[in-house]
Design goal:
Blueprint: H1 3-12, H2 20-44, H3 46-69, H4 78-81, H5 89-98, H6 102-112, H7 116-121, H8 123-128, H9 134-168, E1 173-174, E2 180-181, H10 183-200, H11 202-213, H12 218-236, H13 266-293
Antiparallel strand pairs: 1-2
C-alpha cells in the first residue's frame, strides 16, 4: 500500500468534531432517559402506589359520608357545608383535609427517600462514577419527586371532583362569598386551587430533599420532615407569635380559599406563595451545595 493510501486511510478514521447541536441533542437525550428511569422508579414502587390509592380514597370517603348523612343548612366546615349543593366542592374539601397530614406525609416519604435512598442502597456511588454530574443527579431526583407531588395533588382534586359530580350533580357552583358561578368557571377555579396547592407544597418538598442529602438513612429524612411539619403546625397555632407565623410553611396552606370567592386579588394569592417559593429557593440551593461538596462516594 502506498504512503498516500495510508495517510488517506488514517485521515478517514479521524472522527468529525462534535457541533454544539450534536452535543445538546446527546445531553438532552441522556437527561430524558434518566428522567424516564427515575419516573418509572418512583411510580412503580408499591409504597408510593399505595399512598396514591389512599389519597384517592379520601375524597370518596368524604363524599360517601356526606351523602349518607345528608347535612343541611350549611352546618360544619365551610367546604363540607357546600357539598350537598356543589359537587365540585368535594375536590376543595378533599385538598383541605389532605393538606395537614396526607400530602405532607407523601412528600416526606418520596422526597426524603430521593437522595438518602440511593445512598443507603449504594447506587448513588454508582451513579456518580458513571460519570454523571452531581447536579444532574439532584435535578433528576427532584423532578421525579415533584412529579409525584403533582400526581398526588392532581389525584386528590380529580377524584374529588368526579366523585362530587357523581354524588351531588353538576349544577351551578355557589362560592364561599355566596355568589353563584357557572360550572365552567368553577372548573377553572378548581384547576387554580390545585395549582396553588402544588406550588404551596414545593417549599416542603425542597426541605425534604435537602434533609435527604444530609443522611444515608431514608427513614431519618422522612421522620425529620414530618417532625418539622408538626412543629410548624404547632407554632402556627400560637397567636402570641404574631408576624413570625407568616414565615411558617403551614401558615399559607389554605390561602387558596381566596379563589373560592367572587372577587379575589392575584396580589394576595402571590403574597401567600412568597414563603413557600422562598423555602424552595433556599433549601434547593442548600441541597445543591451539600450534594456537590459532600464526600458521598466514600
Amino acid at each position: 500500500m502506498s504512503s498516500v493510501d495510508v495517510s488517506m486511510s488514517s485521515v478517514s478514521t479521524v472522527p468529525a468534531p462534535l457541533t454544539d447541536e450534536v452535543v445538546a441533542t446527546r445531553f438532552h437525550g441522556v437527561l430524558a432517559r434518566q428522567l424516564r428511569n427515575e419516573l418509572a422508579l418512583v411510580f412503580r414502587r408499591r409504597r408510593n402506589i399505595a399512598m396514591l390509592i389512599v389519597l384517592a380514597a379520601v375524597p370518596i370517603l368524604i363524599g360517601t359520608a356526606v351523602k349518607v348523612s345528608a347535612p343541611r343548612g350549611g352546618g360544619g366546615p365551610a367546604f363540607l357545608g357546600q357539598l350537598t349543593n356543589n359537587g365540585l366542592f368535594l375536590g376543595f374539601a378533599a385538598l383541605t383535609i389532605c393538606l395537614p397530614v396526607f400530602l405532607p406525609l407523601a412528600i416526606a416519604v418520596v422526597c426524603g427517600d430521593a437522595i438518602a435512598g440511593e445512598a443507603n442502597a449504594g447506587t448513588l456511588r454508582y451513579l456518580l462514577t458513571v460519570p454523571v454530574s452531581r447536579t444532574r443527579v439532584l435535578v433528576v431526583k427532584s423532578l421525579g419527586a415533584l412529579s409525584y407531588l403533582a400526581a398526588a395533588v392532581g389525584i386528590v382534586a380529580a377524584v374529588g371532583i368526579i366523585t362530587g359530580l357523581a354524588l351531588f350533580g353538576s349544577h351551578g357552583v355557589t362560592l364561599l362569598s355566596g355568589n353563584t358561578v357557572s360550572f365552567g368557571n368553577g372548573l377553572v377555579r378548581a384547576f387554580g386551587v390545585a395549582l396553588f396547592v402544588f406550588v404551596d407544597l414545593l417549599g416542603l418538598a425542597a426541605l425534604a430533599i435537602f434533609l435527604s442529602t444530609l443522611t444515608e438513612v431514608p427513614i431519618g429524612a422522612m421522620a425529620a420532615t414530618v417532625a418539622l411539619v408538626i412543629a410548624f403546625a404547632v407554632l402556627d397555632s400560637v397567636p402570641q407569635l404574631g408576624g413570625f407565623r407568616g414565615m411558617l410553611l403551614t401558615h399559607h396552606w389554605l390561602g387558596f380559599a381566596d379563589l373560592l370567592r367572587n372577587s379575589f386579588s392575584l396580589t394576595s394569592l402571590a403574597h401567600n406563595l412568597v414563603v413557600p417559593l422562598s423555602y424552595t429557593v433556599i433549601f434547593g440551593s442548600c441541597a445543591w451545595a451539600k450534594i456537590t461538596s459532600a464526600d458521598i462516594t466514600s
